[in-house]
TrEMBL record:
Molecular functions (GO terms): ATP binding; D-xylulokinase activity
Name of the molecule in the record: Xylulose kinase
Matching InterPro entries: ATPase_NBD (IPR043129), Carb_kinase_FGGY (IPR000577), D-XK_euk (IPR042024), FGGY_C (IPR018485), FGGY_N (IPR018484)
Database matches in SUPFAM superfamilies: Actin-like ATPase domain
Residue ranges occupied by any Carbohydrate kinase FGGY C-terminal domain in the UniProt entry: 299-495
GO CC list: cytosol
Native source organism of the sequence: Cajanus cajan
Role of this protein: Mediates 1-deoxy-D-xylulose (DX) phosphorylation in the cytoplasm prior to the translocation of 1-deoxy-D-xylulose 5-phosphate into plastids. Can also phosphorylate D-xylulose (Xyl). Uses preferentially ATP as cosubstrate.
Keyword annotations from UniProtKB, A to Z: ATP-binding, Carbohydrate metabolism, Kinase, Nucleotide-binding, Transferase, Xylose metabolism
EC number, UniProt record: 2.7.1.17
Catalytic activity, as annotated: D-xylulose + ATP = D-xylulose 5-phosphate + ADP + H(+)
Pfam families: FGGY_C, FGGY_N
Family statement: Belongs to the FGGY kinase family.
Length: 557
């Protein structure tokens, strides 16, 4: 083991190019955080005029994109900020990162030439201004490709068959349906594109100064990769667009090296020329690494722009709900995941409308109201939801004569609750939905424990509701950005695998010393009581009954 230990006095730099910001976390060779930095898109780069990092089509077509160049400029600014804080780039042994999943970048023919000859005297933004055939990247919040999804499913033998091959049925935000839309509606732009990257492989390409491969894990978020073979699926490629394989390039394992860092970064920021660029991956998969999720039965909940729930498994069984991706730090394992679009931005919306725009007031309302909310149930969709597939809108119900048992009780639809009940209905609704769908997806109930991460995991009142609804202890990590932390850890892991010349189990890196590293989790809230857990089970059944009716009436499938 010693011959494969991390070099002393070296750093591992991890990024997270997410919806609202670019974050960086630096680990030292003892896996402790030594630096972190953030570029917030709306406030640090206001000239792009994004709201929450995105542009929403006002016509309600469901089109949601982000300016590709904003991500490039964010990297210029991030490196500038680190430089100004006297960060010593020369100590960085490896760089890796996370990208928001599914988003895509379209490189114009001839751009590989620009990438491989970057001039260290000029910013990246300046040189990449004309490198993209599409200037606005479709991102995970987009839901404008329902027709393309149905066409791809049909061509692949149905939704279930597509899920069996690629890990998911067709989803609007997935890259394959997004590419199909461009291929069908803007063929000349498709033809003028020489490479399509994911956000993750795009950022890796900048650092490597050459097109980086798409990694096996983030590649599973495209509806294009065979998750067992870890190769492009011929049938899915054919169902999507002609001539696609060459535009996608190769796939690679997440632990592989994309190349040495480009001379641009060596000359401009004084990185060491031997610094490795380890393949970037998706933000959720990197959180699996950052949360050291290696025990089946542990559940992770990420409360970022999106809310996600994930677990690891050796034996995935992809179906019509949820997603399966290869585990980025276990070559034989997989992760299963549920994704909610109405996460933090919907909580902010309810906070702004009912709780005086203040998390303190929001939390006071959560504390003032009773668990189960006196039988008041709410469904809040500020964005078209993924799970369940419902359009924008809110629906509120009161269970008549609510008492402890719900058997035979009927609900009545209402217009609005009092403000404290609105807040509780939102929070209980979000986590009851997660519990219900995660149970259907094979989550042990209660799970052994939950590890919470993402911006909203800083909110203790929200974590308390999670502990009551799921009936288990809730842990948190030192900092809520597990995606950039996981990326830094994967940079170290990739460095070691490269040194060894083959895959090394990631737990070998922290086996006996987890508690002494920045990766350790701490207990944040104890499990709620068993009786309340059972009461939540019966109100959850009622909620799913109502949800199924809403899907029948308004749903997209
Ligand atoms: P992403 O990585 O998807 O860009 P983050 O994980 O950084 O998102 O989370 C950002 C979100 O965290 C914000 O939209 C905000 O609503 C939420 N957040 C931050 N602090 C709190 C808090 N105290 N209570 C609830 N939500 C919070
Ligand atoms: C995952 C998903 C989101 C994005 C946002 O499928 O769509 O969680 O990764 O970061």
């Amino acid at each position: 083991m010693a011959e494969f230990s991390l070099p002393q006095d070296s750093y591992f730099l991890g990024f997270d190019s997410s919806t609202q910001s670019l974050k960086a976390t630096v680990l030292d060779s003892n896996l402790n955080i030594v630096a972190s930095e953030l570029v917030h898109f709306d406030s640090d780069l206001p000239h792009y005029k994004t709201k929450d990092g995105v542009y929403r089509d006002p016509s309600d077509s469901g089109r949601i994109v982000s300016p590709t160049l904003m991500w490039v400029e964010a990297l210029d600014l991030m490196l500038q900020k680190l430089h100004e804080s006297k960060f010593d780039f020369s100590k960085v042994a490896a760089v890796s990162g996370s990208g928001q999943q599914h988003g895509s970048v379209y490189w114009k023919s001839g751009s590989s030439q620009i990438l491989s000859s970057l001039d260290p005297k000029r910013s990246l933004l300046d040189q990449l201004e004309n490198a993209f055939s599409i200037r606005e990247s479709p991102i995970w919040m987009d839901c404008s490709t329902t027709a393309e999804c149905r066409a791809i499913e049909k061509a692949c033998g149905g939704a279930l068959e597509l899920a069996r091959i690629t890990g998911s049925r067709a989803y609007e935000r997935y890259t394959g349906p997004q590419i199909k839309k461009i291929f069908d509606t803007q063929p000349e732009i498709y033809d003028s594109t020489e490479r399509i990257s994911l956000v993750s492989s795009f950022m890796a390409s900048l650092f490597a100064g050459a097109y980086a491969a798409i990694d096996h894990t983030d590649g599973a978020g495209m509806n294009l990769m065979d998750i067992k073979e870890k190769a492009w699926s011929k049938v899915a490629l054919e169902a999507t667009a002609i001539g696609l394989e060459s535009k996608l390039g190769d796939l690679a394992p997440a632990y592989a090296v994309a190349g040495n860092i480009a001379p641009y970064f060596v000359e401009r920021y004084h990185f060491n020329q031997n610094c490795l660029v380890v393949q970037w991956s998706g933000d959720n998969p990197n959180s699996v690494a950052g949360l050291t999720l290696n025990i089946p039965g542990d559940l992770a909940i990420s409360l970022g722009t999106s809310d996600t729930v994930f677990m690891i498994t050796k034996d995935p069984n992809p179906g019509l709900v949820g997603h399966v991706f290869p585990n980025p730090v276990d070559v034989e394992g997989y992760m299963v995941m549920l994704v909610y679009k109405n996460g933090s931005l919907t909580r902010e919306d309810v906070r702004d409308r009912y709780a005086e725009k203040s998390w303190d007031v929001f939390n006071k309302f959560l504390q003032q109201t009773q668990p189960l909310n006196g039988g008041k149930l709410g469904f809040y969709y500020k964005e078209h939801e993924i799970l369940p597939p419902l359009p924008v809108g809110s629906h509120r119900y009161v269970i008549e004569n609510f008492s402890d048992t719900l058997d035979g009780l009927k609900e009545r639809e209402v217009e609005e609750f009092d403000p404290p009940s609105e807040v509780r209905a939102l929070i209980e609704g979000q986590f009851l939905s997660m519990r219900a769908h995660a149970e259907r997806f094979g989550m042990p109930s209660p799970p052994k424990r939950i590890i919470a991460t993402g911006g909203a995991s800083a909110n203790h009142c929200i974590l308390s509701s999670i502990a009551s609804i799921f009936g288990c202890d809730v842990y948190t990590v030192q900092r809520p950005d597990s995606a950039s932390l996981g990326a830094a850890l994967r940079a170290a892991h990739g460095w070691l695998c490269n040194k060894k010349g083959s895959f090394l189990p990631i737990s070998d890196m922290y086996m006996d010393k987890l508690e002494k590293t920045s990766l350790s989790c701490k207990l944040s809230v104890n499990a709620g009581d068993q009786e309340l857990f059972s009461k939540y089970a019966s109100i959850m059944k009622k909620r799913i009954e109502i949800e199924n009716r809403l899907v029948q009436k308004l749903g997209r499938y």
